[in-house]
Amino acid sequence: MTNLDKITVPKIIGKKQKSEKIVCLTAYDWLLARLLDQAGVDVILVGDSAGMVFHGYKTTLPVTLDQMLDHTRAVARGVSRALIVSDMPFLSYQASTEQAIQNAGLFLKEGNAEAVKLEGGEPIAETIHRLVSVGIPVMGHLGLTPQSIQKFGGYRIRGKSSSESEELIKDARILEEAGVFAIVLEKAPADLAKKITESISIPTIGIGAGPHCDGQILVTQDILGMFEDFRPKFVRRYANLAETIRDAVTAFADDVRSNQYPSKDESF
Ligand code: KIV
């Protein structure tokens, strides 16, 4: 049966034309993806932030293609409405266009993703053009691109100097021409994000890029308050699951240790 409510790439582009904000969040597993989908999120990104949030690496660089494919398959099993976009991990698309097509194809063929996300501007425009021309929808990612963290030397805001801001505006236009259906703008000044949003016909999805973007994305574990070590300025917490989980587990441990679990009713 066709799901008429299903979010597709053209529907995401249409939302900009209708001035409807686009709601995006990350997921790496079936259960959370299912909850996000039930809550009506438009785009679920299987982000390579999985490397840090799920696997505990210090950066996203060690994430492998197999790990991302596995996360994508799990997420896809839980989603019926949202558009599923998968991050292509570091070095799975930069070496050549052929490499990018082969690997991006796997996300659609084997992972059941509906689009892929690539980080970078002009240097990968030709690759993006080829991907789109063979039928693979691409979401771009500009500003702070975490796969270039060693080049940047940290997670600072991008686009504050005039040279960086001109480069970002130029890259956004180049990506639009290359055929991306949306661009994630990460950690960029709000005024610059506004300028970019107004200068292109495809949606911008902000993360730490102010209120003028066509949509917003955050890491789900951040909005749920599961990660407490630090909180970027742009993260708003809607729950404190770290505390809730610790309290629940402590209560279970207390019950087990004091012989209060299981009760007669919980036994056969
Ligand atoms: O990997 C990721 O989760 C991302 C988003 C935060 C934009 O790229």
Write the layout of secondary structure elements.
Elements: H1 9-17, E1 22-26, H2 30-38, E2 43-46, H3 50-53, H4 65-78, E3 83-87, H5 97-109, E4 115-117, H6 125-133, E5 138-143, H7 149-152, H8 162-178, E6 182-186, H9 190-199, E7 204-207, E8 215-218, H10 220-223, H11 241-257
Parallel strand pairs: 1-2, 1-8, 2-3, 3-4, 4-5, 5-6, 6-7, 7-8
Helix pairs in contact: 2-4, 5-6, 6-8, 8-9
The structure holds 3-methyl-2-oxobutanoic acid (KIV).
Describe the protein in words:
With 268 residues, the chain is an alpha/beta fold. The protein folds into two domains: 3-237, Phosphoenolpyruvate-binding domains (TIM Barrel); 241-268. It is 41% helix and 13% strand. The protein has helices spanning 9-17, 30-38, 50-53, 65-78, 97-109, 125-133, 149-152, 162-178, 190-199, 220-223, 241-257; strands spanning 22-26, 43-46, 83-87, 115-117, 138-143, 182-186, 204-207, 215-218. The mean pLDDT is 97. 3-methyl-2-oxobutanoic acid (KIV) binds at residues 26, 45, 47-49, 87, 184, 186, 207, 217, 219.
Q: List the ligand species.
A: 3-methyl-2-oxobutanoic acid
Would you tell me which CATH topology of the largest domain applies? TIM Barrel
Oligomer: single chain
Broad CATH class of the largest domain: Alpha Beta
Number of helices: 11
- The low-confidence parts are none
CATH architecture field of the largest domain: Alpha-Beta Barrel
The portion of residues assigned to helices is 40-55%
Output the CATH homologous superfamily of the largest domain.
Answer: Phosphoenolpyruvate-binding domains
Count the E strands: 8
Task: For the record, give the distance between the C-alpha atoms at the N and C termini, rounded to a whole number.
Answer: 41 Å
Q: Quickly give the structural class.
A: alpha/beta
Envelope shape = globular
Count of separate structural domains: 2
